[in-house]
């Protein structure tokens, strides 16, 4: 009994000591909150209704920052609307700052600015989400001439996830819904459509200083994803946002490698069928390449399949059209990236105007395919050409031999959404 009494007294003493320690540290988290809230955090306050921005709602913060992506001088954003975006923890969001024209005109694309949000509101004005109630003293430039991120995507993804892309820089490669009449310019609201089957408007104000540029049947259209009074549109910022104009996309393109199923080409080298696969656009030879359908490993840009090339070969691997396109070509585009986290490789686009007897390199070899660890978004290759006779194309992945981690990089390569544009 005496032994248990001693243990009990010991435990009671420890309990009292622990309790007194707790009382001495009732507020261990006291300190100064971070005054800066990342722009995606501010954006997330909006739930469909106008809201006053307060420190309480931002956990003590009252400042945000962003890169200016609009071009006030070109005249294709409403006067006084300064559009900024910021990427935080791989989440990119944008907002419009509703200012006076005099204040907004003092900033340029690439400026990195800081905004004091006190006494301001987050709301939609004529459809556009942004911050109102700001004074000139609440906005200041931190630095200038920064490069800006652009999300290259298809129209279906833009529309399905518009809340993510609104007021950010995007680029879609598309055709005009209606072939342009002679003398048609960028001025006005023009509908475009891409391989996803979805359409969206591009908009250039007739008073913008680049509105008189000729409108080509197809191009990569870069600009700000904007919620206008007439719906979703891409507002080009200036003449540089009409990228690589060309003829219209060939019917049935881009080749998305979705049909047939991956099981139709499960081996890199199926000699018995000469590696010919009947795809949506016609027969293609896939030598040392397969149809890959592994999520987050194969480079799927649309759908669930892409082409995957073998690694470490001492001979070339090919993805080759076995048919000609009758109206030549003005542009070729495709998406690429390393398979999963493989090393990069070297590959090139080649063309033939004699039914595949001889081939010529188009542009320069490509060596910058990146891994999923670097980015889950593939890169787009684009080649402007002027071929006025029947033509076919292939991708040639060079056989550099086994990767050695230093001088030779020859990992697996992913390709998707191969597109060819008619000459016009």
Protein described:
This is DUF5689 domain-containing protein. Residues 44-241 form the DUF5689 domain. Residues 1-23 form the signal peptide. Strand 22 and strand 23 form a beta hairpin. The longest helix has 23 residues, at 2-24. The model is unreliable at 1-29 (pLDDT under 50). With 424 residues, this protein is mainly β. 10% of the residues lie in helices and 37% in strands. The strands form four sheets. Strands 1-6-7-4-3-2-5-8 form an eight-stranded mixed beta sheet.
Contiguous low-pLDDT stretches (5 residues minimum) are 1-29
Largest sheet: 8 strands, mixed
What is the mean pLDDT? 92
Question: Span from first to last CA?
Answer: 103 Å
The number of E-state strands comes to 26
Query: Helical segment tally?
Result: 5
Pfam families: DUF5689
Organism: Belliella kenyensis
Keywords: Signal
Protein name: DUF5689 domain-containing protein
Topology:
Blueprint: H1 2-24, H2 39-43, E1 51-52, E2 63-68, E3 81-88, E4 91-98, H3 101-104, E5 112-116, E6 121-125, E7 128-132, E8 139-143, E9 151-152, H4 155-160, H5 162-165, E10 169-176, E11 188-193, E12 199-204, E13 218-228, E14 231-235, E15 242-246, E16 276-279, E17 282-287, E18 289-292, E19 306-309, E20 317-321, E21 329-338, E22 347-352, E23 360-366, E24 379-387, E25 392-397, E26 413-421
Parallel strand pairs: 4-7, 9-10, 12-14
Antiparallel strand pairs: 1-6, 2-3, 2-5, 3-4, 5-8, 6-7, 10-11, 10-13, 11-12, 13-14, 13-15, 16-17, 17-20, 18-19, 19-26, 20-25, 21-24, 21-26, 22-23, 22-25
């Amino acid at each position: 009994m005496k032994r248990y009494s001693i243990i009990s007294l010991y435990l009671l003493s420890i309990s009292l000591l622990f309790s007194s320690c707790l009382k001495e540290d009732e507020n261990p988290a006291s300190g100064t909150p971070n005054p800066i809230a990342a722009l995606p955090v501010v954006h997330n306050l909006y739930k469909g209704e106008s809201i006053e921005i307060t420190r309480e709602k931002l956990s003590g913060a009252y400042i945000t920052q962003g890169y200016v992506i609009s071009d006030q001088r070109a005249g294709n954003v409403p006067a006084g609307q300064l559009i900024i975006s910021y990427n935080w923890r791989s989440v990119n969001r944008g907002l419009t700052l509703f200012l006076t024209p005099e204040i907004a005109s003092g900033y340029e694309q690439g400026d990195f600015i800081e905004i004091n949000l006190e006494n301001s509101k987050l709301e939609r004005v004529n459809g556009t989400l942004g911050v109102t109630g700001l004074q000139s003293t609440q906005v200041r430039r931190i630095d200038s001439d920064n490069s800006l991120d652009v999300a290259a995507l298809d129209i279906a993804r833009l529309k399905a996830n518009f809340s993510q892309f609104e007021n950010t820089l995007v680029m879609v490669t598309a055709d005009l819904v209606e072939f342009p009449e002679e003398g048609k310019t960028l001025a006005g609201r023009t509908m475009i459509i891409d391989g996803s089957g979805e359409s969206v408007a591009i908009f250039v104000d007739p008073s913008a200083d680049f509105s008189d540029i000729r409108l080509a049947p197809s191009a990569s259209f870069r600009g700000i994803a904007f919620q206008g009074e007439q719906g979703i549109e891409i507002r080009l910022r200036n003449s540089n946002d009409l990228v690589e104009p060309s003829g219209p996309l060939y019917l049935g393109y881009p080749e998305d490698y979705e049909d047939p199923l991956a099981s139709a080409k499960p081996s890199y080298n199926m000699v018995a069928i000469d590696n010919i696969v009947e795809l949506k656009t016609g027969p293609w030879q896939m030598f040392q390449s397969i149809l890959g359908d592994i999520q987050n490993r194969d480079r799927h840009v649309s759908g669930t399949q892409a082409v995957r090339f073998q690694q470490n070969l001492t001979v070339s691997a090919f993805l080759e059209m076995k048919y000609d396109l009758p109206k030549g070509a003005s542009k070729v585009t495709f998406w690429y990236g390393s398979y999963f986290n493989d090393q990069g490789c070297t590959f090139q686009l080649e063309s033939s105007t004699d039914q595949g007897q001889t081939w010529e390199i188009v542009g320069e070899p490509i060596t910058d395919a990146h891994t999923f660890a670097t980015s889950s978004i593939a890169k787009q290759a684009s080649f402007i050409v002027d071929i006025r006779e029947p033509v076919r194309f292939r991708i040639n992945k060079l056989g550099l031999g086994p990767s050695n981690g230093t001088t030779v990089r020859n990992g697996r390569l992913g390709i998707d959404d191969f597109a060819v544009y008619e000459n016009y």
